[in-house]
Amino acid sequence: xxxxxxxxxxxxxxxxxxxxxxxxxxxxxxxxxxxxxxxxxxxxxxxxxxxxxxxxxxxxxxxxxxxxxxxxxxxxxxxxxxxxxxxxxxxxxxxxxxxxxxxxxxxxxxxxxxxxxxxxxxxxxxxxxxxxxxxxxxxxxxxxxxxxxxxxxxxxxxxxxxxxxxxxxxxxxxxxxxxxxxxxxxxxxxxxxxxxxxxxxxxxxxxxxxxxxxxxxxxxxxxxxxxxxxxxxxxxxxxxxxxxxxxxxxxxxxxxxxxxxxxxxxxxxxxxxxxxxxxxxxxxxxxxxxxxxxxxxxxxxxxxxxxxxxxxxxxxxxxxxxxxxxxxxxxxxxxxxxxxxxxxxxxxxxxxxx
Length: 354
What we know:
15 helices; globular
């Protein structure tokens, strides 16, 4: 394993990946709150997981922007991202689109191709792949972020003020959409989302650059600040859920989401950095597979309940079933990624042998 690998970001990637699964399996319950202890646990864990997408964006920004030194470095960066991110996203888009069309045809339901293209090209949701929106958002974000980063690199105050201004603007827009009966982020078109998540992308890089200069005492202080932010975010999130304002609670462009995202990100940065040769290999492997889990997990979310027949309803109607479905989905997605990686490596070896 690479000695320069930072285990903190491996943990962060796995945490964000598992958080996405928890959000997909438990969010349904939060629309009808009750005063029971099991519901509190579900609401607490769901709220703690709510920063998954901002954390994913911040982590991407931390690794991407350190590779951008000048405008000549942008094309190689984009080519590398095309191989790692864009091509797999398009491949799985085709798979989810085919599954969607096959399902509609088999059930005899008419297909509105104008709506299909609109959902895919304007909302980033190809067919059954509704979860791919944030990967399409990241594609657009990484096209506009590098030149903006180079332009503002020697203007840190301008960059900081722009990030705060963008976040405040989209917070106001999302809140207005929710008050009109919408869902906030889900009502924003994909090009707007690419701009809306720019602050998280830049903050991921900026916070890492500052935190890596801290000594042990500085990291302890940072950890305290992180925990305060997380507790504040959780308190606001739970208050909104219990007041039946779930759309406000899950809004990424809100104060509580900002507290959670910054707090969780800073907490991981406050951990001691990696020591050479001490990074656990299973953790690195799980982190590397997290992107494959993002791509494939929705297929397993739909398939697994059907495999269990009449017992499949347990996954959707009980709290424990929702967590079990998240765990099984993660296990099947990682197992599939492992098998694909194995055969991919075998094919690559045979090609090199020729």
